Amino acid sequence: MSRNIVIFDTTLRDGEQSPGASMNLAEKLEVAQALVDLKVDVIEAGFPIASPGDFEAVQAIARSVKGAAVCGLARCNDKDIDRAAEAVKDADDPRIHVFLATSAIHREFKLKMDKDEIIRRAVAGVERAKGYTSNIEFSPEDAARTESDFLCKVVEAAITAGATTVNIPDTVGYATPTHMGGVIRDLVNRVPNIDKAVISVHCHNDLGLAVANSLAAVENGAGQIECTINGIGERAGNCSLEEITMALKTRSDYYGHTTRVDTTRLVPTSRLVSSVTGLEVQRNKAIVGRNAFAHESGIHQDGMLKNPTTYEIMRPEDVGFHKTDLVMGKHSGRAALADRARALGYHLEGEKLQEVFDAFKKLADKKKEVYDSDIAALIDKRVSSADDQWKLVRYELKLEGEGIPSATVTLSKGDEEQTDTFFGGDGPLDALFRVIEKITGSQVVVRDYRVHSVSQGKDAQGESTIELEYQNRIYRGRGVSTDTVEASTLAFLNAVNRISLTSGEPTEAVYRDTV
Ligand SMILES: CC(=O)SCCNC(=O)CCNC(=O)[C@H](O)C(C)(C)COP(=O)(O)OP(=O)(O)OC[C@H]1O[C@@H](n2cnc3c(N)ncnc32)[C@H](O)[C@@H]1OP(=O)(O)O
Ligand SMILES: CC(C)C(=O)C(=O)O
Ligand SMILES: [Mg+2]
Fold it and tell me: What is the CA radius of gyration of the chain?
């Protein structure tokens, strides 16, 4: 029977758990708005107890988002649930997502709780959340590795306690499609009150099977899929939203289900998330990769020219690829800029539109043609630096006798400016980075540094991305400018700003990184 599958996006929660993918408040609000435009049903905006910044972001999203439920994650304890409830309370449709691991491994080694205690805590958690909202999701974490009998008992108890969605996570990406389908089928057949809740699925991609496992779950009765843009998330990531929604759409002949997702927004949303997290999308990534609709070989090109359906199962425009890169110039106005920005995944209005418009006009004076990618870069620059404490005022680079670099940088913080100089270093960029370290007082190690062009032509804008290590954590930064040295300096400063943004917060998050 045809069903509408609920799309639960967790880019801002599980997606943000990707090492180095932290987003600032302005970036999270921009992504949340893009998710609304994409027409996802539920936005998991964060884990409010995790840090004051997470709480603030969930609250701001709950207050601003219209047209999707806003969800906050909580462990099964009173403090987490109360904090999540406080964060989502102003949403039109607030959801609290309570989780507790159920597998033998997690019970014994992590939680140190027996089966009875797990059921007691799960029920107490759902009941407490129920005191705040009627929209409650419960997840038995590591469900795919949980004994079937026990999983059925926990799910039944959570529904009796008031859970309206029961989410079945494959937390460690262990399942295969037949296995995951079987887990859902067992719940459908064996849990007496299962019809009182929506069954959800939350698959991780450790074996590259997250999308396949989610499809198998849907085939066996799941009515909600948890997923993220570009498949980002803990370790190898989560089920990719663009892949799962296009699989359901393209193969509606087989699955017969629908989603509310406006698939023409997939590419702009993917771009936005890639840009704010610094996690690049691989060229051959299904649906949104640059090569997803590119045809190189003669026989394929011949077929495409005769009829695109010979080699394309989806139309590029259905996922949001544009045939042409619209050229805007110095004679374009605000209306055209706002319209172009929307097509690229952003919302520009009021003061924000004016700021980007001013930057656009300056760029148009420098560059002959301003492409979509230039515009996206200008907006990204504004969004990613919105919460920055330190701003670059000016810099000067000189090569002294025997080519030794000397860098002088002026940064501002609030109304104050500070200038310093560094002489020496392993090259001009190193000298610039060292001055910034001196002024901001942060000692970092550069782990990765890249520069590439974001638009066409000799006068293209350069984008620099950088990964800094500070106290065993990775911080990413981006900078864009027509001058690549300036782009690199901005990227370094952007990453340093992220350090000062998070290190002042009393978070005790355990972090395992891959460096
Ligand atoms: C599968 C998932 O994706 S779950 C979500 C994972 N995301 C995150 O962890 C990111 C945010 N996390 C954080 O900021 C921190 O871990 C916090 C603030 C939540 C907790 O920090 P701390 O209080 O220092 O605890 P810490 O992280 O060291 O350990 C987690 C504790 O929660 C307990 N716990 C884990 N899951 C649950 C749960 N669902 N319900 C109740 N307790 C739980 C653990 O057993 C451990 O308790 P213990 O300290 O008594 O052994
Ligand atoms: C919190 C839960 C749903 C989770 O992210 C997982 O189990 O992977
Ligand atoms: Mg997860």
Answer: 24
> Which residue's CA lies nearest to atom 5 of ligand 2?
14
pLDDT in tens, 263-290: 999 999 999 999 889 888 999 999 999 8
Ligand 3 centroid–CA 234 distance in Å is 6
Question: Which residues 6+ apart lie within 8 Å of 315 measured at CB?
Answer: 308
Query: Rounded CA gap, 95 and 88, in Å?
Result: 7
ipTM: 0.99
CA 305 to each of CA 54, 250, 289, 298, 443: distance values in angstroms, whole numbers, following the listed order: 50, 22, 22, 10, 56
Q: Which of 277, 295, 311 is the last residue of a domain?
A: 277
Q: Say if 465 falls within a structural domain.
A: yes
Binding residues for Mn(2+): 14, 202, 204, 238
**Of 414, 421, 412, 375, the residue nearest 493 (C-alpha):** 412
Q: Does any domain span residue 310? A: no
Whether residue 294 lies inside any domain: the answer is no
| Cβ atoms 40, 11 nearer than 8 A | no
Number of domains in the chain: 3
Cβ < 6 A, ligand 1 pocket: 14, 17, 47, 49-50, 75-77, 99-100, 110-111, 141, 171, 234, 507-510
Please give the single-letter amino acid code of residue 388. Answer: D
Tokens standing for 447?
Answer: 């782990």
Report which ligand 2 atom has the smallest distance to the Cα of 143: 7
pTM listed for this prediction: 0.86
Q: Give the domain CATH number at 99.
A: 3.20.20.70
Q: Which residue puts its alpha carbon closest to atom 8 of ligand 2?
A: 171
Q: How far is the CA of 74 from the centre of ligand 1 (A)?
A: 9
Flag whether pLDDT at 457 surpasses 70: yes
Which helix (H) or strand (E) segment is 499 a member of? helix 484-503
Q: Which of 49, 71, 202 to mutate to test the pocket of ligand 2 (most atoms within 8 A of CB)?
A: 202
Task: Give the H or E element holding residue 152.
Answer: helix 148-161
Nearest Cα residue to atom 7 of ligand 2: 171
Residue 453 in domain: yes
**How far apart are the CA of 139 and the centre of ligand 3, in A?**
10
Distance CA 281, CA 286 (A): 10
Amino acid at 103: S
Q: Express each pLDDT in 29-49 by its tens digit.
A: 999 999 999 999 999 999 999
- Give the domain extent around 353: 334-384
Query: Ligand 2 centroid vs 169 CA: distance in angstroms?
Result: 6
222 CA to centre of ligand 1 in angstroms: 27
CATH number at residue 444: 3.30.160.270
How far apart are alpha carbons 101 and 202 in whole angstroms? 14
